[in-house]
Q: What sequence folds into this?
């Protein structure tokens, strides 16, 4: 019996959404949340946020993921510690540094 490799089998069951995150086709669940649940050995609690340490939403390696209790804690610890301020407005978000936008992401 012929077996598919894990990598091709996995990629066939997922897609990259318009915001650059990988999701499972059947459930719509984000892959990084699934990976973090496996690492923790429990389901994520409502409101918990999974952060990609390197900023790459496609790097779902367990050692690249970190859980925050909520979005507020995530923003406070990840964006302010770098001297940056992250704002969200009208489906757009921007990371500000020194008063100017260094990155802007809009959906829709």
A:
């Amino acid at each position: 019996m012929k077996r598919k490799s894990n990598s091709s089998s996995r990629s066939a069951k997922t897609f990259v959404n318009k915001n650059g995150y990988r999701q499972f086709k059947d459930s719509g669940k984000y892959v990084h949340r699934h990976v973090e649940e496996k690492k923790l050995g429990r389901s994520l609690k409502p409101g918990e946020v999974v952060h990609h340490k390197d900023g790459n939403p496609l790097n779902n390696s367990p050692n690249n993921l970190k859980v925050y209790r909520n979005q507020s804690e995530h923003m406070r610890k990840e964006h302010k510690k770098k001297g940056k301020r992250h704002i969200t407005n009208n489906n757009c978000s921007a990371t500000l540094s020194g008063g100017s936008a260094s990155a802007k992401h809009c959906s829709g």
Observations:
- Strands lie at 14-16, 22-24, 49-52, 65-68, 85-89, 92-97, 100-106.
- Residues 22 and 78 are 21 Å apart (CA to CA).
- The longest helix spans residues 31-40.
